[in-house]
Amino acid sequence: MDRNYHVFSDGRLERHNDTVRLVTLDDEKKFLPIEKAEAVYLHGQIDYNTRLVSFLNKHGVALHIFGWNDYYAGSVMPKRGQTSGTTLVEQVRAYDDLEHRVDLARKFVAGSIHNMRTNVSYYNTRGHDFESVLTTLEETRDRLEETTDVAETMGVEATARRAYYSTFDDILPTGFVFDGRRYNPPDNETNSLISFGNSLVYANIISAIRATALDPAVSYLHEPGERRYSLALDIADLFKPLLADRVIFRLLNRNQLTTDDFETDLNSCLLNERGRETFSKEFEESLEETVEHPQLNRKVSYQYLLRLEAYKLKKHLLTGEEYVPFKRWW
Amino acid sequence: MTDSDPVDLLLQTARDEAGPEEFRVTGVMMQYYVVCKRELWFHSRHVEIDRGNAAVVRGTHVDETAYADKRKHVSIDGTIAIDVLDDGRVMEVKPSSSLVEPAKLQLLYYLWYLKHVVGVEKSGVLAHPTERKREGVELGEEESEQVEDAIRGVYNVVTSDSPPPATEKPVCESCAYHDFCWSC
């Protein structure tokens, strides 16, 4: 699987002969090995032109852009090599059939609860007492079976995630408070890390969905929305505990990120450039971690698990074979 | 769905006489029919294959380079694409002899198609350039029946609402649908 490149500095990204190069404001030049790239993430103020976009398109490389405050601002995706009317029709059919839609929504939530539980359970055996949270997560999992519409399913998801987030204040080291999830903008260090981590998960899933002919705007748990890839939100919920939250715990508990890596404003707190760089590096390493896949009989990277999830959903929609959401098995 | 024989349906489609239901069978569908019916079903639903897959890259390369100076590509009705040698025989090139059966059926199907749709009778040759082997193939009565049975079989697979379940085969490992098929 190809890797992601993150650009944090300001400057210009351009095609130079048969490769891509970054020219920073102080005229430093860096080359990006385009042959091995899956996507380029732009976090700084970057100029680029159509020549670069055509070149990235030719190599099938996506450009994900993070704007002011590192909000995900959009993507320049390579032209679709694959489109499939059949897939889109089946996607919409499942959305339109309430029973089918609720079933899929429940599966995304069931997978999310399982993966949140795995993280809680890990810390429960390492000096924390999270028995009551584990109980809540089990209860929400049972309640999920009885939900009959999407709003109710969403409600169960929210309850589970609130219980899950309640463990963060205990897991995180002194100096980092959490005190509930807030965004737009995040109001403290932990919230800004969760926002940034989730947006990286989201962008990686957009790339994974793009490798199939699934339409990223047709979703089941989240209402298909304007101007966003809501199917990526459905799938992202499954992977946030594995990909984003573990990186947060690791970086803070090992002191690799401190309060100096943030910029605090009146009502917001965001990672600064150095902090984003540290986080992205750790995040990319986490994507490259591998695990033995029981059905594929080989090791696959965490990043490839995202691709497989898109395959699984597409296969379910096309064939009617059961979709089993990603549940961490190791 | 129709009650008519898929073989007739295919011939009507080829002659532009088919009604609303058209039925075309390409050479690669014949191969998949022998190799894996699940693969055939995925192919019929246009599931994208993994272009980076090693076997796909190899097959494409052998197909594009072997005997390039001695053969001509001919496309018929946009349905089948055959290679004709200087001596008029139809050639099918395969990267390895492990896929002889599917390649042979594909070649027989081409000969059958030429006979029934185009109206010319040809002989075939199955070539394995990497192993420097060639084998003559003729369309007799038995072979015709084999082709027609396969056409009916292909029809049954591609008109089903769902594919046959996955079963582990030696070819799975090099299949371009491998990860799609086994992801669960």
Helix-strand blueprint:
The complex is a heterodimer of chains A (330) and B (184).
Chain A: E1 3-7, E2 11-16, E3 19-24, E4 29-32, E5 37-42, E6 46-47, H1 50-58, E7 62-66, E8 72-76, H2 85-96, H3 98-124, H4 131-144, H5 150-165, H6 168-171, H7 189-210, H8 230-253, E9 262-264, E10 269-271, H9 273-288, E11 290-293, E12 298-301, H10 302-319
Parallel strand pairs in A: 1-5, 2-6, 5-7
Antiparallel strand pairs in A: 2-3, 3-4, 7-8, 9-10, 11-12
Chain B: H1 6-14, H2 27-35, H3 37-44, H4 54-65, E1 71-76, E2 80-85, E3 90-93, H5 100-118, E4 124-128, E5 133-137, H6 141-158, H7 178-182
Parallel strand pairs in B: 3-4
Antiparallel strand pairs in B: 1-2, 2-3, 4-5
Helix pairs in contact in B: 2-3, 2-5, 5-6
Order of helices and strands of chain A: EEEEEEHEEHHHHHHHEEHEEH
Low-confidence spans of chain A: none
How helical, in percent, are the residues of chain A? Answer: 40-55%
CA-atom Rg of chain A in angstroms: 20 Å
* Average of the residue pLDDT scores of chain A: 92
Estimated structural class of chain B: alpha+beta
- Order of strands in the sheet with most strands of chain B: 1-2-3-4-5
Tally of strands of chain A = 12
Distance between the termini of chain A: 21 Å
Number of DSSP helices of chain B?
A: 7
Residue stretches of chain B low in confidence (pLDDT < 50, at least 5 long) are none
Largest interface: A-B, 19 and 16 residues
Broad shape of chain A = globular
Largest sheet of chain A: 4 strands, mixed
Most strands sheet of chain B: 5 strands, mixed
Shape of chain B: globular
Number of helices of chain A: 10
In helices, the fraction of residues of chain B equals: 40-55%
* Portion in beta strands of chain B: 5-15%
What does this structure look like?
The complex is a heterodimer of chains A (330) and B (184). Chain A is built from ten helices and twelve strands. Chain A has 330 residues and is of the alpha/beta class. In chain A, the strands form four sheets. Chain A has a four-stranded mixed beta sheet with strand order 1-5-7-8, with helices on both faces. In chain A, strands 4-3-2-6 form a four-stranded mixed beta sheet. Chain A has a two-stranded antiparallel sheet with strand order 9-10. Chain A is 49% helix and 16% strand. In chain A, helix 3 (98-124) runs antiparallel to helix 4 (131-144) and helix 7 (189-210) crosses helix 8. Chain A has helices at residues 50-58, 85-96, 98-124, 131-144, 150-165, 168-171, 189-210, 230-253, 273-288, 302-319; strands at 3-7, 11-16, 19-24, 29-32, 37-42, 46-47, 62-66, 72-76, 262-264, 269-271, 290-293, 298-301. The mean pLDDT of chain A is 92. In chain B, 43% of the residues lie in helices and 14% in strands. Chain B has seven helices and five strands. In chain B, strands 1-2-3-4-5 form a five-stranded mixed beta sheet, covered by helices on one side. In chain B, helix 2 (27-35) packs antiparallel against helix 3, helix 2 (27-35) runs antiparallel to helix 5 and helix 5 (100-118) packs across helix 6. Chains A and B meet through helix 10 of A and helix 7 of B.
